[in-house]
Write a structure and sequence with these properties.
Length: 129
């Protein structure tokens, strides 16, 4: 459902893998009966036009159905737990010029990437809470 990578791509303003996320949320929140019907029909036929015209912008994420928001919220918390440090620790390291300069160039780049990822995830938590 989520492609070969098994992950969703989130940007600052919208979900970049919106079709995969939308389908995954719908399927994971289905009853067993709804899922059987979905499999028999090879997906949804009527929703394709509606989904093509909608984007999962930040505004749209905040208006998702409650079960979808809960699933996203819990998933983001699990993702954040997979990091060794939290957002504040990354921010503190970025703000500590002496400690930051002791990092190798590669470690500095990794820090910036992790910090950006965590900021996007925290933004998503706010949107779906």
């Amino acid at each position: 459902m989520v492609g070969e990578e098994g992950a969703f791509v989130l940007g600052w303003d919208e979900v970049l893998t919106e079709e995969e996320l939308s389908t995954t949320l719908k399927v994971l929140c289905m009853s067993e009966e709804e899922f059987k019907e979905y499999k028999e029909q090879d997906g949804w036929e009527d929703d394709s036009e509606e989904e093509e015209n909608s984007t999962l912008s930040n505004e749209a994420l905040s208006r998702l159905k409650t079960p979808f928001k809960k699933l996203l919220y819990d998933s983001v918390l699990l993702t954040l737990e997979s990091y060794r440090s939290d957002l504040k620790a990354e921010q503190d390291l970025l703000n500590n010029k002496e400690a930051y300069e002791k990092l190798s160039r590669r470690e500095q780049q990794a820090l910036h990437v992790r910090y950006g990822q965590k900021r996007i995830l925290h933004q998503l938590l706010e949107l779906v809470h």
